[in-house]
Hints:
Blueprint: E1 9-13, H1 17-29, E2 33-37, H2 40-50, E3 54-58, H3 66-76, E4 83-88, H4 93-102, E5 106-109, H5 114-170, H6 179-209, E6 218-221, H7 222-235, E7 242-247, E8 250-253, H8 255-271, E9 279-285, E10 290-297, H9 304-308, E11 317-318, E12 321-322, H10 329-339, E13 342-348, E14 353-360
Amino acid sequence: MKSIKNNRKILVIEDDAHIRNNVVEFLSLNEFDVVAAENGVQGLISYATFKPDLIICDIMMPEMDGYTFLEELQKRYPLNFTIVIFLTAKNSAADQRKGMYLGADDYIVKPFTFNDLLNAIETRFAKSDLRRESIEKAAEKMKQQSYSTPFHEFNTCLNSILTGSQFLIGNAEKLPLDIETQSILDVIKRSGLRLSRAINNFILSKELESKSYFPFIEDVPVTYIVNNIVSIASNYNRSADLNLSVEGVSIKTDKFLFKRVLDELTENAFKFTQRGDAVIWNISLSTDAISLEIEYPNKFRFNKTKFEQIAAYNQFTVGSQVLEGLGLGLFLSQKIVEVLGFNLQFTEKKSSNISFKIQNSNTESI
Length: 366
C-alpha cells in the first residue's frame, strides 16, 4: 500500500521494541524515511540530527515520557513545525487535553491498525501542507504590499519636492534668491534625485526577485543609447572626456531596463574618475551579436574579487570611504542583463583601466 512520498521524514519514539520495529518496517515500506528511538531522551538526540517532518511518540516510557519529551522539544526548538502524533494506551479526555495543550497534533489509541496509523499520518501531512501553503501565500502578499504601497507614497512626495525645487532654481533670477538659498535648493534637488533613484532601485529589485516584472521587447535605436550616454556625460560636465565608437542601427530589448544598466555603468565611470580621464564606450550591434563595452581608469580600485562579490546592499569602499547609495546598482545591472538574455563581464586591463561589457549570453569573451 503506497502513501505520501516526497521522502518525508518520520521519527518513531517507542519503548516497546516489538511495536517500534513493526512501525518502522511498515513506514519504510510506504517509502517514508524513518528513524527510531527507545525513549524521549534518545528522541531529542535523534531530532537534533534527523530533523523529522513528523514524530510518532509513545506517552508512557522510561527515563522521559512523551509529555516531557514534547515540553523539552518546544523549549529547545520553539519555532519548529514538526507534526506530533501521540500513541497511548489510554483514551482519556484529560490526557488528550494535556497533550493538545503541549502542542500535540493527534492521538492514536493502542491497540491500532497500520491503516489507522497511515490515515492519521496522511491527514496530518495534508493539513500541514495546506497550512504551509496558506502561510506562504500570505507572506508573499504581505511582501508585495510592504514595499509597493509605502514607496509609491514616498515617490509622490518626492516628485513634489523635486518639482518645487526645480521651479525655484529655474526662477532664481526673478524671485530673486541669494547664493546661499540657491545652494540649499541645489542640495535639496540632488538629495531628492538620489533618494528617488534609491527607492526605484529597491522596488525594481523586489520585482525582479519575485519575477513579477516581464520585459517588453522592442526595437531600440542606437541613437537612443548614444543620446542617454551623451546626456550623462553632459550632466557631469565631462563631454570632452567621452569617447564613443558606434556600429549598428538598433537592438531588440526592453528600453526601460536596458537604459537602467547603461545609466548605472556610465554614471559610475564619471563618478569614480576625474576630469581629463577618458571614458570610452565601444558599441557594436548586429543581428547576430551585441557588444557594449565601457572602459575607464581604475581610480576606485575595483577588481575581479569585488565584482564576484556583488550582492544586494553590498556597498564598496574606496579606502575608508563607503560609496554612496544602497549598494544595488551593479547588482541590479547584473540581474537586468540576465533577464534580458545577455551577460555582464568585468575585465582588468593591463593599462590600469577596467571595463564592463554587455554581450550575448552565448558569446565568448575575447
